[in-house]
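Work Package 4 report. The design task specified in the project plan requires that, given a folded chain encoded as structure tokens, an amino acid be chosen for each position. We show below one input record used in the internal validation round.
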């Protein structure tokens, strides 16, 4: 089981890198991708098949083109990655949530796991979210009042976004913003999708405190849009502590969950 999980994680990281290389060099050929990523051409072709099925690549002669902005991999494909780590993070965060709080919840793959765990905890809460899946999941808990933000709908990613969304959020004051991101480094928290980054910035601005939920695989990485500088993070909840300069920059903001548990 652990070997399978490790293999899936390596494939996920390779496919993310593959997409990044294609976005930077759209004309790159399969043979050059194989050489740059130090894998066989057959491996690149299998990755192409999966990424085309996920709707983020389209084939062309000798290579492939990236499709659309935002996250490199589809929601369904991302949802399969690093699940044990994200479940531990969700459980630890739910334990820190206090009854009666008003929470702004950003959408995402970890957000959905968090929402499932929170719904099962039976705590009286108010949750304001722009996540379609998260709102539906939380609405099944009688103890949770769910407030859904308006906006333009992205059905594939499962959220609403835009000016209507951020304006709506600005009308509330929450106890806590719970958010997620694609990358964290010494310069701050980063997100691939500019639409999500804008909404999360609004949530942070209109909450008294915030928690960033992120598995360690995203540490010391870079993505397109800055959500906030590192000193704006309230608490980082992760399955494994950061190291080196990132650990120094975060100082006391990190809460490590289940680090002794096998991955």
């Amino acid at each position: 089981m652990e070997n399978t999980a490790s293999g899936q994680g390596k494939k996920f990281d390779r496919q993310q890198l593959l997409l990044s290389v294609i976005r930077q060099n759209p004309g790159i050929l399969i043979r050059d991708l194989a050489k740059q990523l130090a894998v066989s051409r057959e491996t690149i072709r299998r990755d192409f098949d999966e990424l085309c099925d996920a709707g983020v690549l389209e084939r062309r002669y000798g290579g492939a083109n990236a499709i659309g902005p935002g996250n490199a991999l589809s929601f369904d494909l991302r949802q399969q990655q690093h699940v044990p780590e994200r479940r531990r993070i969700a459980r630890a965060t739910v334990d820190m949530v206090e009854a009666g709080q008003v929470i702004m919840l950003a959408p995402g793959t970890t957000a959905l796991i968090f929402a499932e765990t929170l719904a099962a905890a039976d705590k009286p809460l108010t949750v304001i979210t722009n996540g379609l899946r998260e709102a539906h999941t939380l609405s099944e808990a009688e103890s949770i009042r769910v407030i859904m933000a308006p906006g333009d709908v992205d059905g594939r990613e499962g959220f609403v976004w835009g000016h209507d969304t951020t304006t709506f959020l600005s009308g509330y004051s929450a106890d806590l913003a719970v958010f997620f991101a694609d990358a964290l480094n010494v310069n701050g928290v980063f997100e691939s999708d500019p639409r999500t980054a804008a909404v999360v910035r609004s949530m942070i601005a209109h909450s008294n405190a915030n928690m960033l939920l992120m598995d360690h695989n995203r540490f010391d990485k870079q993505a397109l849009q800055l959500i906030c500088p590192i000193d704006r993070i309230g608490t980082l909840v992760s399955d494994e502590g950061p190291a080196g300069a990132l650990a120094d920059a975060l100082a006391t903001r990190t809460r490590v969950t289940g680090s002794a548990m096998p991955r």
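The domain at 2-68 is CATH 1.10.10.10 (Arc Repressor Mutant, subunit A). Validation will be extended to a larger panel in the next phase.
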